[in-house]
Write a structure and sequence with these properties.
With about 350 residues, this protein is an alpha/beta fold. The chain contains 14 helices and 13 strands. The strands form three sheets. A seven-stranded mixed beta sheet has the order 2-8-7-6-5-3-4, with helices on both faces. Strands 9, 10, 12 and 13 form a four-stranded antiparallel beta sheet that branches. Strands 1-11 form a two-stranded parallel sheet.
Length: about 350
């Protein structure tokens, strides 16, 4: 049984494991103030071409999202999210549990646009309602689509004009930046958002996300918020070591390119046999529409999620490739799809 369920089924890149083992018996300071975290932050600032950002290490995306959003918002302020947004659908109400409502906006391609922000503002008019204050997006989106540079520039300009924060969930940021359709550099992000994070868990790390605060007024006391929300890791060096390994030779981008390439190979093979897709995704998540009987037969050898029912006979499945997906597994899936389609 080979899994296409997610991009974190495997452990970590061998370079990371080697570095963790070699540093294992060294004594370091705790809570992200060790020499490895300091070096990783400096390296990331160099990659971002911004020395004035603050960077904090987290162990996971949900911890990052709930800590950041609850720190940035006052009690009556709310988040705007696409109806497919991760914080809305797949974080068990973590944001709501911090006391902040999420305003859901229905979109077709997973992406928020300025008109959607204005819709939320227009619908929340006075103190009897929550106040929209932060726009949450992910790049890529939950359905694999990506923001182009002009789209992000337009969105950030509109948020800034409307006195609303723009926050980017970067759990799969590598996949977006390494997509063939992408025109954004990682160094563009500090000027196009108020805060974002660089995801490691889904791109070769054991655990770990690097959270970047770009807007000065959001930086004060942020470590207090991390501690209060349970995100301040005592052995913080575990995250720092991993980000050093991921970025010192740009392994991070190589791994993301591999994941995207494997997804592209799957897509080409699926198209070859006449199947269509729920959404055109240029990253490592693809959503082919297949007859239910064929899905059942493929599930005998492969694990994946059934994303949504299309009609009584067909469903869209989600196939996710990773930094470690084997080319032979992709080829095997295509061969088996051909066999069950005949």
């Amino acid at each position: 049984m080979y899994s296409f369920k997610n991009d974190y089924s495997e452990g970590a890149h061998p370079n990371i494991l080697k570095a963790l083992i070699e540093s294992n018996m060294q004594q370091t300071d705790g809570y992200g103030e060790d020499r490895y975290c300091m070096a990783a932050k400096k390296l990331l600032k160099d990659k971002l071409k911004r020395s004035d950002v603050d960077i904090h290490m987290f162990c996971g995306g949900t911890q990052t999202n709930l800590t950041a959003i609850s720190a940035f918002l006052r009690p009556h302020e709310a988040v705007i999210s696409a109806n497919t947004g991760h914080v809305l659908v797949h974080e068990t109400g973590a944001i709501e549990a911090t006391g902040h409502k999420i305003i859901s906006i229905k979109v077709g391609d997973g992406k928020l646009k300025p008109k959607h922000i204005q819709m939320a503002i227009d619908e929340h008019t006075d103190e009897h309602m929550v106040k929209p204050k932060l726009v949450y997006i992910s790049n890529p989106t939950e359905i694999g689509t990506i923001y182009k540079k002009q789209e992000l520039e337009d969105l950030y300009a509109y948020c800034t004009k409307s006195n609303i924060l723009l926050y980017i969930d970067g759990a799969r940021l590598g996949a977006a930046l390494c997509s063939k359709e992408n025109d954004i550099e990682i160094s563009d992000l500090p000027r196009l958002t108020d805060a974002f994070y660089i995801g490691g868990t889904k791109n070769g790390a054991l655990i770990g996300e690097a959270f970047v605060i770009c807007k000065d007024c959001l930086k004060e006391d942020f470590r207090y918020y991390i501690k209060q929300k349970g995100g301040l890791l005592a052995k913080g060096r575990l995250i720092g070591i991993q980000f050093l390994e991921l970025f010192k030779n740009d392994i991070y981008f190589d791994l993301a390119k591999h994941a995207n390439s494997m997804a592209e190979s799957l897509k080409i093979g699926i198209i070859k046999y006449g199947y269509k897709f729920l959404i055109d995704s240029p990253t490592n998540q693809i959503f082919p529409i297949l007859p239910n009987e064929i899905i059942a037969r493929l599930q005998e050898k492969y694990s994946f999620f059934i994303w949504q029912k299309v009609d009584k006979d067909n469903s869209a499945i989600r196939l996710v490739t990773s930094w470690a997906t084997k080319e032979e597994a992709v080829k095997s899936f295509i061969v088996d799809l051909r066999l069950v389609s005949e």
